[in-house]
Specification:
- The complex is a heterodimer.
- By secondary structure, chain A is mostly helical.
- The radius of gyration of chain A is 20 Å and the shape is globular.
- In chain A, helix 6 (about 125-150) packs across helix 12.
- Chain A is about 75% helix and about 0% strand.
- By secondary structure, chain B is α/β, with parallel strands linked by helices.
- Chain B contains ten helices and twelve strands.
- In chain B, the strands form three sheets. Chain B has a six-stranded mixed beta sheet with strand order 6-7-8-3-9-10, sandwiched between helices. In chain B, strands 2-1-4-5 form a four-stranded antiparallel beta sheet.
- In chain B, strand 11 and strand 12 form a beta hairpin.
- The relative contact order of chain B is 0.17.
- The chains are: A mainly alpha, B alpha/beta.
- The interface of A and B includes residues 17 and 96 of A.
C-alpha cells in the first residue's frame, strides 16, 4: 500500500490544471523545429526562402530541395515520432508501467526482423513490408509476455523489460545475419534497421506513416477511456465492466501496428515512446486521451529535432537517428528507473 | 421509511448458487459448492480465515476465477447472460487490491465509475457529473475533488474508491476488505458509511476479516472455511465459540461487547493447541 498518511504532498495548482499552454507550446515547438529542419542541411536556407519555397516561389533548386527532400524528411520524422510516442503511451497504460515502450519491449525489434526477412525473401511492396513488420512486432510482443510469464508473472516490470531487451538483442542478431550477404545497393543496410534513419524519406513513406498514424493513433484515442480503466489494474478494470483480456489484447495489437509502421519507414528508433509520454504526464495530462494527443505532438517535435541534430552536428557525416534518441533516452530511462526502485 | 417506498428503492438480491472455483494445479477447490444470498437493505458479510475462499467469491463475480460449477444470480437470474459492461451497470465492486498505477485527480478517478454507462467518446453528461458529486458528498470526499489520487491518505483512498463504486449508480454493492490497513477511527468511519448505504435499500455484500466489527454491523453472516460454508445466519448463529474455534484453529472465547451487547470474539494466548 503506497498510501500512508505520512507521505502527503501537494502539487502546485498550475501543474494539476495544465490547461492549454502545453498544447500551444507543443504546437509552436513543432512548427519551429519543422521550419529549422527544412532550413538547415547541406545547403542552408534562410527561413524567408523556406516559406517561399514551400509555396513554390523562388529559386528552382531551392524549391526542389525543400519540396522533394527536406519537407518529406521532416514530415516522416514527425509521423514516426508521433507514432512511437503514442505507441509507448498506450503500452505504458495497459501494462501499468511507465518504462514500457516498443523499443525496450522488443516490439520494434520484432518488427524490424519481420521486415528484413520479408525483404530478404524478395518482398518489395512497402505495404506488404509493413504488414510483415507488424507480424514480427506481434510475435515479439507475444514472446516477451510469454517469457516474462514463464519466469514469474507478467506483472513484474523488471522481468518484462529484461525479456524485451533479450528479444531486442536477438532481433539485432537476426537482422545482421539476414543482411550479411545482401547486396548493399538493393537492400537497406543493417545499420539503417538497427539504428534508424529518416534519410530515405519519400512522399510514399510519408503517406504510409501518416496513414498508419491517423488510423491506429485514432483508434487509440477513440479507446482512450478503456486505457484509463485498464491502468487501474485487472480487478478494478473488470469491476468497471471492461473485458480486461480482450481490451488489453486490442491495445497491444494497435500499439504494435503503430510501432511496426514506424520501423518499416525509419528503422529502429528507441526511447521516444519512453521519454515523451512521461514528459507529457509531467506537464499535467493524466487521462489517456489528452496524454496520447499531446504525446503525438511532442513526439513529432522531438523526432524532427533529433533528425535535425543527426544531420547537422557531425555534418557532412550523418548520425543514425536512433543514436541521437538513445543519447537522450538512456539517461532519462536511468533516472526513471531510480525513481521507480527507490 | 414505509415498506412501500422501501420496496421501490430496494436493490435486487445477489446470490451464489453452488459455486465451485477450482484453480489449475491445486489439489482442492478454492470454493466448494458455496451457496449464499445477499438481500437488500442490509449488510451481508462473508468472513473466514486466510485462504477460506473469500476473495475467490469476489473473483467469481468479477469473472476472473475458474468457476467449474454453480451460478451467480442477480435478482434470481444467472449473470452469465450479461456481458461485463451490463453487469457493471447493476453491480458495483470495490476490489481488495488496487494500487494507483498512474495518478488521476479525484474527479477523474470517480468519473471512471461512470465508464459502464458512458459511450466511448464525448464529454461527461450533466447526469454523470451529478452522480460523481453525489458519490463524493456521500463519502465525505467533496473537498478532495481536485486532489491527485497519489496524495490521499489510506482512509481517503478507500473512501474515494467507494465513491467510484457509488458513481456507478447500482443497487448492489460488493466490497472486498475495504478497511485493510486502516486505523480504528478510519475503519469505523468506513463501516458506518457502508451501514448507511445498506440502510438506504442497497444490497451490500461485505467481505471482511474484522469479525468483531462485522458482528456489530452485519445482519447476515456467512462463515467460510476451506472453501465451504461453515456457518451462516444471524450474528448469534455464527458467533459461537465452538464454531469459530474449529474454523480459525485457535483457542478463543466469545464474550459480549460491554457497550452494545453483541457477541465479540476474543482469541486466547496459545496454550498447547498450536496450529
Amino acid at each position: 500500500m503506497s498510501h500512508s498518511t505520512g507521505e502527503r504532498h501537494h502539487e502546485p495548482m498550475s501543474l494539476r490544471h495544465a490547461g492549454h499552454w502545453p498544447w500551444v507550446f507543443g504546437a509552436v515547438m513543432l512548427v519551429g523545429v519543422s521550419l529549422l529542419g527544412i532550413a538547415f542541411g547541406a545547403v542552408s536556407l534562410p527561413v524567408s526562402e523556406v516559406l517561399d519555397a514551400l509555396r513554390g516561389v523562388g529559386d528552382g533548386a531551392d524549391v526542389a530541395i525543400v519540396r522533394d527532400l527536406r519537407l518529406p524528411r521532416v514530415l516522416l520524422a514527425a509521423a514516426v515520432g508521433a507514432g512511437l510516442a503514442m505507441s509507448g503511451g498506450a503500452l505504458q497504460g495497459t501494462m501499468r508501467n511507465p518504462l514500457a515502450e516498443p523499443y525496450l519491449l522488443g516490439v520494434s525489434g520484432g518488427a524490424a526482423v519481420g521486415a528484413v526477412v520479408a525483404m530478404a525473401l524478395g518482398v518489395v511492396s512497402p505495404t506488404l513490408l509493413t504488414a510483415c513488420a507488424f507480424v514480427g512486432a506481434a510475435a515479439a510482443t507475444i514472446l516477451v509476455m510469454a517469457l516474462a510469464r514463464i519466469v514469474g508473472g507478467s506483472g513484474d516490470t523488471r522481468l518484462l523489460l529484461m525479456a524485451g531487451v533479450v528479444v531486442g538483442a536477438f532481433a539485432n542478431a537476426a537482422i545482421l545475419v539476414a543482411l550479411a550477404d545482401a547486396p548493399p545497393e538493393r537492400l537497406r543496410g543493417a545499420l539503417w534497421w538497427m539504428m534508424g534513419s529518416a534519410a530515405d524519406a519519400s512522399w510514399g513513406a510519408v503517406s504510409r506513416s501518416a496513414g498508419a498514424l491517423v488510423v491506429f493513433g485514432g483508434l487509440l484515442v477513440w479507446r482512450a477511456r478503456d486505457l484509463d480503466v485498464l491502468a487501474l489494474g485487472g480487478e478494478p478494470a473488470a469491476a468497471l465492466g471492461v473485458d480486461v483480456d480482450r481490451a488489453s489484447r486490442r491495445i497491444f495489437l494497435i500499439a504494435s501496428w503503430l510501432a511496426a509502421a514506424t520501423v518499416a519507414s525509419a528503422g529502429l528508433v528507441g526511447f521516444v515512446g519512453l521519454v515523451v509520454p512521461n514528459l507529457v504526464r509531467a506537464l499535467g495530462a493524466r487521462q489517456h486521451r489528452p496524454m496520447l494527443l499531446l504525446s503525438a505532438l511532442y513526439g513529432a517535435a522531438l523526432l524532427v529535432l533529433a533528425d535535425l541534430l543527426a544531420r547537422t552536428v557531425r555534418a557532412p557525416a550523418e548520425l543514425p537517428l536512433g543514436a541521437v534518441t538513445a543519447l537522450v533516452g538512456v539517461p532519462f530511462f536511468l533516472s526513471r528507473l531510480r525513481r521507480l526502485t527507490a | 421509511m414505509t415498506s412501500d417506498t422501501r420496496a421501490l428503492l430496494d436493490g435486487p438480491s445477489l446470490g451464489f448458487d453452488g459455486i465451485t472455483v477450482q484453480y489449475a494445479g491445486r489439489p482442492t477447490p478454492a470454493l466448494d459448492r458455496v451457496t449464499l444470498h445477499a438481500q437488500p437493505g442490509m449488510i451481508t458479510a462473508v468472513v473466514g480465515p486466510n485462504g477460506s475462499g473469500k476473495s475467490s467469491l469476489v473473483r467469481s463475480l468479477l469473472r476472473r476465477a475458474p468457476v467449474t460449477s454453480g451460478r451467480v444470480l442477480l435478482a434470481g437470474a444467472d449473470i452469465a447472460v450479461l456481458d461485463a459492461r451490463s453487469l457493471a451497470q447493476h453491480v458495483a465492486i470495490v476490489p481488495q487490491r488496487e494500487e494507483p498505477g498512474m495518478p488521476l485527480s479525484v474527479r477523474e478517478f470517480v468519473m471512471l465509475g461512470r465508464h459502464p454507462r458512458r459511450g466511448a467518446f464525448g464529454a461527461p453528461s450533466n447526469g454523470d457529473w451529478q452522480s460523481v458529486a453525489d458519490a463524493l458528498a456521500r463519502t465525505g470526499m467533496s473537498e478532495a475533488i481536485d486532489r491527485a489520487t497519489d496524495t490521499l491518505s489510506g482512509g481517503e483512498w478507500q473512501r474515494v474508491r467507494i465513491a467510484r463504486a457509488l458513481a456507478q449508480d447500482t443497487r448492489v454493492l460488493v466490497l472486498d476488505e475495504p478497511t485493510t490497513f486502516l486505523d480504528i477511527a478510519h475503519e469505523m468511519a468506513v463501516f458506518e458509511l457502508i451501514d448507511g448505504l445498506a440502510r438506504e435499500g442497497r444490497t451490500v455484500l461485505l467481505v471482511s476479516h474484522q469479525l468483531n466489527l462485522v458482528a456489530r454491523f452485519a445482519e447476515h453472516i456467512v462463515l467460510l472455511s476451506r472453501g465451504r460454508v461453515a456457518a451462516a445466519g444471524s450474528v448469534e448463529t455464527v458467533m459461537r465459540g465452538e464454531v469459530l474455534e474449529s474454523v480459525y484453529e485457535w483457542p478463543l472465547v466469545v464474550t459480549r461487547d460491554p457497550a452494545v451487547g453483541v457477541p465479540a470474539l476474543l482469541p486466547l494466548r496459545g496454550r498447547g493447541r498450536a496450529r
